Amino acid sequence: MDARDILRQSPLFGGISDAAIDALAAHATLIDVASGEQVFARGSAPDHIYIVASGRLRARLADGRLTSAIPRFDPTGEISAVLGEPRSADVHAVRDSVLVRLPSAALLQTLQAFPEAMLQLTRIITRRLRQNATDSTHALAAAQRRSTLAVLAATPDDPARAVAARLCAHLGGGRARLVDAAAIDAALGPGASVLAADAGSAAQRQLVEHLNAFERHDTPTVYLANPRADAWTRRCIAQADRVLVVVDATRPATAGATIDMLRASRSHAPVDLVVMRPTAAPAPTVLDWRALCGAGAHYYLRPDREADFASLARQLGGRGIGVVLGGGGARGFAHIGLLRALQELGIPVDVAGGSSMGAFFAALLACGRGLDEIEAIARDTFVARNLLNDYVLPTISLIRGRKFVRHLHELFGEQRIEALRLPYFCVTTNLTRGRAAVQDRGPLYLWAATSMAVPGVAPPVAYNGELYADGAVVNSLPTDVMQDLQRGPIIASDVSTEGGIAAPGVVGPDPEALFRLRDPDAPRLLSILFRTATLTSESGVAQRAARADAYLRMPVTRVGMFDWKRMDEIVERGYQHALQQLTPLREQLLR
Predict the structure, then answer these.
(1) Catalytic residue among 356, 451, 496, 537, which?
(2) I want to staple 459 with a disulfide (CB 3.0 to 4.6 A). Which of 272, 317, 383, 397 is the partner?
(3) Residue 182 contacts by C-beta under 8 Å, 6 or more apart in sequence?
(4) pLDDT per residue over 45-76, tens digit each?
């Protein structure tokens, strides 16, 4: 690896003369930067610029945004150097990297001596400034670009190798590369995988270049760590875009040497928990394991279910299908039609979430209920039985809500959200703070019921001194929550209606008109309460719809909030509409 060759291949100096390259190379040096190490800090003096010879860097701007990765041959620090201003971003290595370090003074001298170099640098800086200003990189795109995973066993007994091998069978269409210590030793010689990070050694740089070369191919790479905390395990962590920690669902959360190494690393890669959990096994310690590993998410795998591994691969690759179901009372029956269409089209659901009525149907789906069972439960809950008639003196609400909450408790039992095999969330409204609250852990029945507790109709739920109510008050279609999970394409089912409630035929103004109206579409108390409660939420539907890859505005016009008896009609409407809208999008969603 030669500094001059790197400078020649950098787009920063593309097309300039050999004499200019030689002048720059005379002042350039190679330096080693470990994964997680800071190259320079925001506000520091612009004394050097850097060119990536091997590895990858990333910058965090002043507003907190992460820029696109800075790959091989790309520069960083050149804008501050030319402007003579302090650094505008923090830059750190996200791989073990080798950089060419070039003093800013030498760069400026060369620019003065070789005008063509100044022109090229001006072009690069202009492009970089435009990219920083209008960077369209968002969380999902970043997830889809993550090409390397590290798989670690929390303890030596956890089946990390089996998980890594089966993931490779599904990642990248089965083209993923599995890299373990034995593969490195076979390629570079015995002991190469456990080389100490001796800065500047030829063997160290050869290993770094060998590992980083994997990323120059359009193939996902899965690094399998050793079952112990050694130099190879550290390298796996350093090379990863995402770290997966494999644990046994039945084992209590206990820190070992590998977990300690992960926690002590300076890796910026997100950490996820992969929990091996047979069909009948509980998951009582998953939150403890997450806290111990610093994991942001967890996934359950059944050893005998290949579909679980396929779903995990989709989600890790930013191709998992997330379904978001909106709130709307009886209009929410259209969600059943959507689920029927998805099943018919062979579109899997990897994550489910919703608000209000949508939270209820998403919860049933996340519990593993079949489509026929979901439809039967909906009919029993809302059509055959009246669970909203435990009226009370309306000092807090019209009904006590006890009958409905008890019914949900019977349906869902003691299941906890974090123990559901299909990732699930629901949205509630924190009335105390006036904002949405995402519920992704805790009693399923209680948070699903809370997400449906329309203010004025049912009482708010008190939790930790604060009050929570229907999620549709502030967010009736939580595509933003789903997008933040970075799992993949989003299918959103919106059952709100444009125009809301009205007084047909009344010119007015007439403060008592509603008492005289006999029109079947005339608003009644519950409809007025719900419409009032969700005005703020419905004003943001267009913005939330824009986040969906497939947005379905269900044909539920002139369906009332409490038209429970029209269930079959509404389900069929939703099914026909979903089938029509999703059929041409199927290949795109599954790609």
Answers:
(1) 356
(2) 397
(3) 193
(4) 999 999 999 888 999 888 887 877 888 899 99
